Automatic annotation (TrEMBL), chains A, B:
Species this chain originates from: Serratia liquefaciens
Gene3D superfamilies: 3.40.50.360
SUPFAM superfamilies in the record: Flavoproteins
Family statement: Belongs to the NAD(P)H dehydrogenase (quinone) family.
Domain Flavodoxin-like fold per the UniProt entry, residue ranges: 1-215
Record protein name field: NAD(P)H-dependent oxidoreductase
Length: 257, 257
């Protein structure tokens, strides 16, 4: 299987760097092909702007429309094109990052914004009052799997159902559902390592053990059962759950079967 | 009052640009002092890295510890220092941005990561088994107010309680609670403008009317009643809600009184 790891940590000699190296070795030892997009090492351009297209600049930069035009006409920056090729090559995509301020680092957010072009990751398929595009379960990346590897300084209890930071599944929902399920990925449960300030050799070995098992089972693990937009459960174009689907449920969890 | 608008859109001649201009005029006409950090115009460096400190680079870059050292010893990059000064100057801080992939644009996320230094926005106060820092309602920015101005391409129903994207309040929770309440801000309800692809003159006038009213009432509006970490409602150090606080409630909303 082809695995792409998109990795966002500034220091190779860090816990994240060690986990990344471990993952690459484990996957390669199992016979997989692995590519790593090491965003800091690549000096990835984090900011989406008019320079993302090689077209002559117009009067006004429009993030969506300019992206659409650049994608359709082959005018995207080379760095964007290369990442899209890696996504198409991959069977499984892993995003690995430290949780900074309850989301991904800016450099990875900028990877999403720039690589997820209009026509590639959104604006795909028919958009009308009866069909709202190929998204949330359908799209360019359908049939592929994705998984997050996340580290946090906070404790597991801080991210529990009644923990002060909010439940980790809810914090990750905009990424897992809004960024990964959206263009079609099947999303596996995340691998989260908490309390990174206190990782000694024993805890690191334990973490590698648990992570290794998750990597060994990438092809068998059941994905999070996010609902599919176009499977009859949502009103279109309001895109609210139909009254008979999970009646009384609301919030993020209503979108998981 | 002193108002800082941190603004993240690449095109001045956009809906966001027009709303920004409107806000500045409205606030100045009411006698407030206004500063705008226009991140794209400033070519804000989005990526947190070892160059954020003028100290001699060590063997390994440690995002928190290097930030702590740079802040404590006056070795931060000038651009970071200037933004911290603006935050200290402001009575109210407005973050204005288009919702991209269910969060803030990378350039604004990078502003948070770099400006929110260890010792400034986190790692403030006593950290022990009985006290977990001055945060979530206390901290350097306590006594100040903050508000989001957000635009989305999607419809309001897509962000409703049973809307496919998830409720807007939950999508914004990691920002409003995790980034604004955390260092002490009182957070006002957000101003959200939906369906930006369909803003004609009439809807723009309506939006300005509604936004203008919110700006006129900045000092009177009741903040979102996020719970305070150190007010006796959380177990320390587990930082879970005590059993008698909102029993049975879980998820983001449990942290709102």
């Amino acid at each position: 299987m082809n695995v792409l790891i998109v990795y966002a940590h500034p220091e190779p000699q860090s816990l994240n760097g060690s986990l990344r190296d471990f993952s690459v070795q484990r996957l390669e030892a199992a016979g997989h092909e692995v590519q790593v997009s090491d965003l800091y090492a690549m000096q990835w351009k984090a900011t989406l702007d008019a320079n993302d297209s090689t077209a002559q600049p117009g009067d006004r930069f429009n993030p969506s429309l300019d992206s659409q035009q650049a994608f359709a006409q082959g005018l995207q920056s080379k760095d964007i094109e290369l990442e899209q090729e890696k996504l198409l090559w991959a069977d499984t995509v892993i995003l690995q990052f430290p949780l900074w301020w309850f989301s991904m680092p800016a450099i990875l957010k900028g990877w999403v914004e720039r690589v997820y072009a209009y026509g590639f990751a959104y604006g795909v398929g028919e958009h009308s009052d009866v069909r709202w595009g190929d998204r949330y379960g359908e799209g360019t990346l359908a049939g592929k799997r994705a998984m997050l590897i996340v580290t946090t300084g906070g404790w597991e209890s801080h991210y529990a159902q009644r923990g002060i930071n909010g439940p980790i599944d809810d914090i990750l929902f905009p990424i897992q559902h809004g960024i990964l399920h959206y263009p079609g990925f099947e999303v596996l449960p995340p691998f989260v390592l908490y309390r990174t300030g206190r990782v000694d050799e024993a805890r690191f070995a334990e973490a590698c053990n648990a992570l290794g098992q998750r990597l060994d089972e990438l092809e068998q693990t059941s994905p999070i059962p996010f609902r599919r937009q176009n499977a009859g459960e949502y009103e279109i174009p309001a895109l609210t759950l139909k009254p008979d689907i999970a009646p009384g449920c609301k919030g993020f969890s209503a979108h998981i079967e």
